[in-house]
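Why MAM domain-containing protein? Reviewers of the renewal asked for a concrete example.
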Amino acid sequence: MSPIVFTVAALECTRVGLRFPGTAAHAYLPCSPIGPTDAAEQRLRFKMHSHRILIVLLSLSALSSAQMLPWNCNFDDGLCGITQDESDNRDWMRLDNFTPTSNTGPSTAQSPRFFLYFETSDPVREGEVTRFTTPDLQYSGSVCVDFWYHMYGASMGSLKVFSQTGLDSSTISDSDFFVSGDQGNVWINAKVTVDLNSNNGRVGWQATKGNEIQSDIAVDTISITRGACPVTVSPTIETTTPSEVIMTTAEDVDEVTIVTVEPEGENTGGDDERSLPYSCSFETDFCQMNQRTNDNFDWLRLSGGTPTGNSGPNGASQGTFYAYTEMSSPRNQGDVAVLETPSLLYSGDVCISFDYHVYGSTVGNFYVTLSSNPEIRLLDISTDLGNEWKSANIIANLRSGDRVVFTGVTGSDVYGDIAIDSLNIATGTCEVTLPYVCSFENENLCQMTQSENDDFDWERSSGSTGTSLTGPSGASEGSYYMFTEMSSPRVPNDRATLISPELGYTGDICIRFDYHAFGVDFGGFYVTLESSPNNRLLDVTTEQGDQWIPASLNARINEGEKVLFTAVRGSDVRGDAAIDNLNIETGACAKTLPYTCSFEDNFCDMSQSATNDFDWTRLSGQTPTGGTGPTAAYDGEFYAYTEMSSPRQENDVARLETPELDAEGAICVTFRYSAYGSSLGRLYVTQSSNVNNVGLDIRADQGEQWLTADLSFNIARFEKIYFTAVRGSDVYGDFAIDDLDIASGSCGETLPWTCGFESNFCDMEQLSNDQFDWSRNEGLTGTSDTGPTAAYQGTWFMYIEASSPRQNGDVAAIQTPQFAVTGSVCVRFAYNMYGVGINRFYVVNSRDSSRPVFDQTGNKQESWLTAQIDMELTSGDRLVFYGIRGNSIEGDIAVDDLRLTSGLCSDSTGPDPTDAPVTQYVVTRCDMEGDGSSQNDCRISQDNTDDFDWSRATGKTTSGALHDRRIANVKYPITGPQNARNGEYYFFTEASGTRDGDVARIIFDGDQFRRGGNNCLRYAFTMNGYHIGTLRAYMMKNGNREYAWTLTGDQSPDWKQAAVDLNMNSVSQIGLEAVMIGDFSGDIAVDDVSMSSGRCEFPNHSSLIANNNLETDERWLLCVF
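Here is what the prediction returned.
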């Protein structure tokens, strides 16, 4: 239940006795004279479980006016008569700002301005002490000493409170109060009862230095009053109704007054309620903290490191134990663990200070909220912060009964343990350390103040501002925001300035917030530092529309700096400015796009991962190890690389991380990379939120060249891009990157895309790992009897010049830009291959360079030819055009009028009509005349994972020769063909001796069978017999067998032809499969297998029958001639 507040008419008193009905015991709550008995009131606050309490007021005579109690001192007006002890080692010092040593001592007083502190820098030695005492206090008996202390520092010593008689230090009492060790960067209140044994007793404070200089101790705001300090009374008597207090005096008092008391607040109490200050170091237990039951798993206490390597802390931030979330199995991504404090019996501003640890490559989320307002996150971390403890000081406004809630969320893998330690919650506000977060949900404005040198103030609001057509309609997040009301009495050029608290940090900071600048009369909004009022970090001079706009501002500050937000009134009332979601944190801001880095001067705010075995290095010139790495930068002088020489070992990892990127959605990451060496490990690129989404993955030697990568990612705001290199088996495996560019939007060109080479190469890029380049030309090429006489369209075309110094086999390669499209595309172009020395011209998809999608060799004709190719592209793909020089200078090859359109070629419009024939060429033909083992164009092999093999035959099959069958009075073999379709031989499956379900597979290989893109597979077949099973054409993709064509049952004795469209991207194997049903009359035969580029073309007289087991897929067709 809530504390009960009651009012008692004031009497002169020295103590109040509390006696509970039915008990003989008394508990005493001291008080002191509070003013005239006919006017003043005394408010007593205590926790109780009964509303009937007997209060006895014992009246004593008034004390002499010479007494000095109460005695108060906040050091703002001096030292209040205190005495420095001359028998100690050092003196206390008075200060109004940061103590000289960093990471120790307060930055401001607890009271308005000054405080007293012990400076522990050199030459002060470990264990040295300093003492001060109050003046003589003309009082004998118990006194309550109420004061604030600050003990922040990694090597903190101790503080004690004592009493003594006069200036006689030999009478120093045993410690009435003692505390040691780091208590966090926060002022803490203490109330201590001290017994004074004479009328000249004193109260004193002694500070002792720890083992290093981070040991500054401070004291402020002392108040000493008569009587022992108040105690919390928690009787266990059952509550009764109505609520009333019976108040009476002792025997010499004649009046009894009954006063009715109403409980304050809505908190109903309970065993887990706690008053402030509340702290928990997790050394012995969870300090009455509560594990939520509606989450997925619990927080754990632990000492030492967490079980998962490269995640979690190695030990507590202080002491031995801490609390953490274990993200290993059986945890799943998105699982939640919630730990909350007991109910806190306080209403008002509090400081929540704690240490937290968020480390691991797959960190999920860690955030802190209040139970009364779970939508507002006081702290929200969703990225790896490295293997170090961080400190948080959060100002919040509690309602009585509130809990502070700590939530950990599992990421995509086990490397995301989250930990907390050294929790302390105290009344009042924190010293402002970074990160500083303010969402304006609380009325205290997070210690921000209004300037006294402006014309009007900022206001806190929810919903719309008071003037139409200006200002926001609501907060950017949550409910409240700050804005400037520009209506009367405001006049043009009036200014309002909102000021942050002093920031306890020196170095680079990032100031993030959302702002709103809407209205036709908008005057201006700008952000400055107090120390540099003329340097505007942001200056908005025109209205930006009805929208919240995120801002990220970089600044470099000294400790004590303040940030100022100023709005200027325009010509009329429609010019309200607003801000929300302020976050000031250490380090540079996330980078806006485009972000570039050429490594010429530094790493451009890129950082080495805290989990590295070694780091990336900047270098100019060649890497130290021969036979690996680049010889120079791609552009400029410097690049970044990984040196794989000793002491590096196999599988050592180096990760280079971009800064956080202030962008969300699709981005394009473009860079150059070198992957040259005989013992390369691995180079891969990922995004921070999903390390399993690998954009580039290089595991093999790419030659001594710079290559280009264009990677598309979809990112959340403030993500990073990771470049990870893994050391291979030996030193010859240096990786390098250069010329990094990250831009908004997916990589690549959109369709349609055309290039006629009239002005340039249309952003096509010459590859660097070839022997020469393609050239642009108009008219005749430089050599007679080769090349075109003019462009196919327009004036210009591109070609390879075969003249000297070119040699036989020299290669020229050029690639298109990336294409930001996924799906079917039609590629059309004109080409010329005229000359007796023509060698080869082919085209590949950059993603699978081993499988040409177009391939021609030899002298064709003097005129232009055209090609059209159906392909499947994935966003980021390029087309690469290769020309290979032949054995003489009459070997020029030319390309013109290149066009890419969405969809299949049959669905789109091609080049302008000409008489140039369209190439539909057959590269591979298997006529079965050889045994299939050594043919160049078609290599045939048996699958060793099936049940039996195909056989090669001429004439009838073994079973077919046994009997005949009659169809329309014509005799045919009972099974199998009469002869080969063409030539002498064919392949077949002998059904005799097989069982139902037995399978035989035959595999085809050769250049065309390894090409990507759309291809047409043709073959002749017979399925003649009374017990015919099934014939299938299949592809192996990513280890899975996909059936592209299926036919079952007797199809009569004649040879028939099948034509099957295949998309060969990611295909590792093409084959035919026969399934038997266990009878001798079930022989299946094939002949004349061929593969051609492009989709199948069917003659007009064809009978097209949909495949019987793929009726919904019209791509797979049987062509019966």
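The two ends are 92 Å apart (CA to CA). This is the kind of structural detail the renewal will allow us to pursue systematically.
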